[in-house]
Amino acid sequence: MQIRFADARPQGDHALVVPVAGKDRSGLAVLDAAQQTVSTALDRQRFEGEASSVSEQFIDDNGSTRRLLVVGVGAGASGGETSEKLGGTAAARLQTSGEKTAVIDLSGLGYDADAAARVGLGAALRSWRYDRYRTKLKDNQKPTLDEIVVVGGDAGAAQRYDQRWAPVVEGVSLTRELVTEPANIIYPETFVERVRAAVDGTGLEIEVLDRTAMEKLGMGALLGVAQGSVREARLMILRWKGAGDGGQPTAFVGKGVTFDTGGISIKQAAGMEAMKWDMGGAGAVVGAMKALALRKAKANIVGICGLVENMPGGNAQRPGDVVTTMSGQTVEVINTDAEGRLVLGDAITYVQRNYKPATIIDLATLTGAILISLGHEWAGLFSNNDELAAKLQVAGDQSGDKLWRMPLAESFDRLIDSPIADMKNVGPREGGSITAAQFIQRFVENGVKWAHIDMAGKAWSDKAASTYDKGATGYGVRLLDQYVADVLER
Ligand code: BES
Ligand code: MN
Ligand code: ZN
What we know:
Strand content: 15-25%
Number of strands: 19
Largest sheet: 8 strands, mixed
Structural class: alpha/beta
Number of domains: 2
CATH architecture of the largest domain: 3-Layer(aba) Sandwich
Bound molecules: ligand BES, manganese (II) ion, zinc ion
């Protein structure tokens, strides 16, 4: 999708989008002669200008028939989220409409540069789709819209979009692509290849460890998960040095289970296909790194992805196996389906040993229990540091990637003690997301600020929203990008 900004509406064929704020119809002034008929039509359609409501009409525009979309933005509402909703609503509605160009005329709203830029952002994000495997789309199902022109925002909107938001669109799109691809296409090796190609030329440095390298480091937990699969594990490290030398970096760590069958503790068949997106945390890390590099963020970040496939097989690990992690701590693997924490434990040790980060933020589709707690609206946030947690929650609210803080406590930690090893990889059913977080915390070294984001309810959506269609959401990219902008670039 091409997003452009202009001072005046272009000539030629296009659909016109006009926002209306609640019952205040002043935005329709841009329609000149057609204003009265359109307003009458809105009355007859009982259109009240609520956010994301749409009235579609055809008007006579100086002798030619033009499609008009009146889009509600709600009364009195303004700001980034409202803007994104407007752009997203228009894009969704026009994507396969037959129109090639949409012009969103903001003249009636008095949007500042960022608000106008975020109309473009919403439109671009909502337009993302992945048709690679659809060979039989009928002509009238194919997308036609390829350009959105935002008119009437403050000067500076184009620059704001190019510098701040276009990189985010690139990052989110990459994440969605990785999450959408099935597990026969994206497995640890091809995940790395796909990312290499996608970040080529951005200035990101990539380092990849294969099985032999990880064996030498003693990453027995991550490799234990991988050993049931013919697909070899990888640890991928992305580095962005936007703040020059010196200073401890911030680390993002992502769970990259390219498919989670559960292993020998195998999952039930119904719905198992969803486990292709069990790499959503790693996907978010990659997307965020790309966005940060493209916008040349003034921060030093290292992004780590633990990439494995969790399969049952002749060489798979068994319940009861004891593995030795890179940290030296041992783990009794009670349930091979609690694999994400095993991968993250070793990845976190690796990043601490090699990069001495001041702060670690890990993202993972870690537990079904977080869906029971928070549904699909919030991801769970666990942290050993109140200030870090608060800053992440602010970034979550600003970006729309919302976080709800969950507790950590010694009493939960005790629940994962093992009679034979230092810890076991599952606790009781109750508080399953918390004991999972406690497990990860055992790998965080003294003095390191750490936050864990359980995004199992967020990587994928069964219903469309204003900035994404049903499917991969790209959750986490905007959260990390916003955190870097708010906290590290200041
Ligand atoms: N990848 C799953 C968590 C998950 C479940 C993500 C549903 C998205 C939707 C994770 O590896 C897992 O299997 N967790 C187990 C842990 C249990 C064995 C302690 C779970 O949540 O059931
Ligand atoms: Mn699992
Ligand atoms: Zn998993």
